[in-house]
Amino acid sequence: MPARLVSVNVGRTVDVPWGKLGRSAIDKRPVEGPVHVDVVGLAGDQVADQVFHGGPDQAVYAYAAEDLQAWSDELGRTLRPGQFGENLTTEGIDLTGARAGDRWRVGGALLEIAGVRIPCSVFQGFLDEAQWVRRFMAGRRPGPYLRVLEEGPVETGDAIEVVERRDHDITVDLLFRALTTERALIPRLADEPRIDSFVARRLGERRNDRPR
Q1: Which of 100, 110, 175, 212 has an alpha carbon 20 to 30 Å from 57's alpha carbon atom?
Q2: CA 172-87-129 angle, 5° bins
Q3: Torsion of CA 180, 183, 189, 194, to 10 degrees
Q4: CA-to-CA distance for 212 and 207, rounded, in angstroms?
Q5: Contact in structure between 104 and 162 (CB atoms under 8 Å)
Q6: 3-state secondary structure of 131
Q7: How far apart are the C-alpha atoms of 111 and 151, rounded to whole Å?
Q8: Torsion over CA of 135, 138, 144 and 145, rounded to 10 degrees?
């Protein structure tokens, strides 16, 4: 099956009852027609928490339709495109096995895997599933964050072409485990300079979150 987009999703900031900020744009909804993508994300999409989300290293979040279906089966409920807060719902590409630093041509945009989704209390509140953060981490299907190297339009049905696959074993799965449950893997991340800024930001956040 050729890799392609099955949905392009954007969301607006609204008040929510979960998380410290009390506002979120996690509720992404599919949109029709071309959507321009620039270095900070998709036109019409918003980011409420500018400290922990957004920015060039988290401009676009992708999640696989196959992984949504796997979660649907496990949870016994239908999960629609955009329900994990993803901007791009993909089909026919192994996102968990993709490598940090890989580059994709999608529509008129050139994207680069720059990081990985780390679950939070807002995600848990939005999904309304008990112990969701723990379950999501255990499931090891996080989905990557993408950096925008070339701006351009994307829309549902666009092909996803992997134009560069990096020569290492730092997959989205390994990056996720290194930053969550297997911190001993962190030194291996130095082999991929394209994720340096994302990793530094995440580790800085963890240090800042420690009790003083």
Answers
A1: 212
A2: 75
A3: 30
A4: 10
A5: yes
A6: coil
A7: 9
A8: 60
Strand 60-64 relative to strand 88-91, pairing:
parallel
Q: How many CB atoms lie within 10 A of CB 210?
A: 6
C-beta of residue 131 within 8 angstroms of C-beta of residue 77: no
What is the token pair recorded at 155?
């829309």
Q: How far apart are CA 148 and CA 113, in angstroms?
A: 9
- Which of 144, 30, 150 lies closest to 94 in space, CA to CA? 144
Instruction: Render 9-33 in DSSP notation, one character per residue.
Output: EE---EE-SSTTTSEE----EE--S
pTM of the model: 0.94
